[in-house]
């Protein structure tokens, strides 16, 4: 019975994330599918070394000043909360 309410909240969160991806797509002129693949790759790569809070993870596309000119260029900003760093064996 309580799962019913949890799923509704989760659906809302998924819908919100998808809307964010659509907005990012518009700003970066990049398809939503490519952005979702990039997001998954970033999460997978960072997760090899750290335990992260995927629920609080934020990806945003904005603009920043170019290093080579005064023009604004699209930029990916990520806020990735780290729960802990995984111990790596030294080879």
Automatic annotation (TrEMBL):
Concerning InterPro entries, the annotation shows:
MinE, MinE_sf
**Gene3D superfamilies, sorted:** Cell division topological specificity factor MinE
State the Pfam families in the record.
MinE
GO BP field: cell division; regulation of division septum assembly
Q: What keywords were assigned to this record?
A: Cell cycle, Cell division
In the record, the note on similarity to other proteins reads:
Belongs to the MinE family.
Described by its record, this protein's role is as follows: Prevents the cell division inhibition by proteins MinC and MinD at internal division sites while permitting inhibition at polar sites. This ensures cell division at the proper site by restricting the formation of a division septum at the midpoint of the long axis of the cell.
Read off the HAMAP family from this record.
Answer: MinE (MF_00262)
State the protein's name: Cell division topological specificity factor
**Species for this entry:** Anaerotalea alkaliphila
